[in-house]
Specification:
single chain, alpha/beta, Uracil-DNA Glycosylase, subunit E, 2 domains, six-stranded mixed sheet, 9% strand, elongated, binds iron/sulfur cluster
């Protein structure tokens, strides 16, 4: 990782380096299973040479505080390592910078990628060959997608125009992903999986992924009856 960081901070592959004091590598827990990816450093980040050092970072820290987690649980990086002065980068700039993110992913080996903001999640979806078949952004944001042994949780950008409550609910999923479902050890889904009767994707998407979206989990919490044959998405298994 140190060698990679060194190559990043000395990079002049594209003209975006002229916008920055120095390209900014990712930071945080190298052993984290969750990697957060935002688009590019802000001017503040560049000046302080710290990821999410400005307004977005303050919003993130506030959200994390209300949720009861902090940055140290995650590795946080940018798709582009230099300041972007326009809204979206040019394709050639992304192509030149992308190998750094690829290398970070290879080193950290996260089981969950969290692209933040529409440009970044569209890029990550393309990279993993996920077709966008949704009708509205709301159908995609905050919903865990699984592909090739990796989970992807697209999140909204860190601004408060969409409302603090919505952001809080979406970012709460990061806390969910840090632990497996509390019912897992006694849940029939675990038993069925161990008996070879249930595909692993159910366990990974819900029990060891977004258990807060599991219909069984929600019913369990409300003390409502649900048959053993009910799958985490609420459908009844034949
Ligand atoms: S199926 Fe739902 S309730 Fe059961 S362990 Fe998985 S997430 Fe929890």
């Amino acid at each position: 990782m140190d060698k990679l960081k060194n190559r990043i901070i000395n990079c002049k592959r594209c003209r975006l380096s002229e916008n920055s004091k120095r390209p900014l590598p990712g930071e945080g827990a190298i052993s984290s299973k969750i990697m957060l990816i935002t688009l590019s450093p802000s001017k503040h980040d560049d000046e302080r040479q710290k990821v999410l050092a400005g307004k977005d970072g303050r919003i993130l820290d506030k959200l994390f505080k209300s949720i009861g987690i902090n940055r140290n649980f995650f590795y946080i990086t940018n798709l582009l390592k230099c300041v972007l002065l326009i809204k979206n980068p040019k394709e050639e700039q992304v192509l030149k910078c992308m190998p750094f993110l690829e290398e970070e992913i290879k080193i950290i080996r996260p089981s969950v990628l969290v692209p933040i903001g529409e440009y970044v999640w569209k890029y990550i979806f393309r990279k993993y060959g996920i077709k966008l078949t949704y009708k509205s952004k709301e159908e995609i944001i905050g919903n865990l997608v699984m592909v090739k042994n990796i989970k992807i949780l697209p999140l909204r950008s860190l601004d408060l125009t969409s409302g603090n409550k919505e952001l809080l609910a979406e970012y709460y999923k990061l806390k969910v992903l840090l632990k497996e479902c509390k019912w897992f050890s006694v849940c029939p889904m675990k038993r069925f999986y161990e008996q070879g009767k249930l595909d692993k994707k159910w366990i990974e998407k819900y029990c060891k992924g977004d258990w807060s979206s599991c219909v069984r989990y929600r019913m369990e919490e409300r003390g409502e009856y649900h048959p053993d044959s009910m799958l985490p998405d609420g459908t009844i298994r034949k």
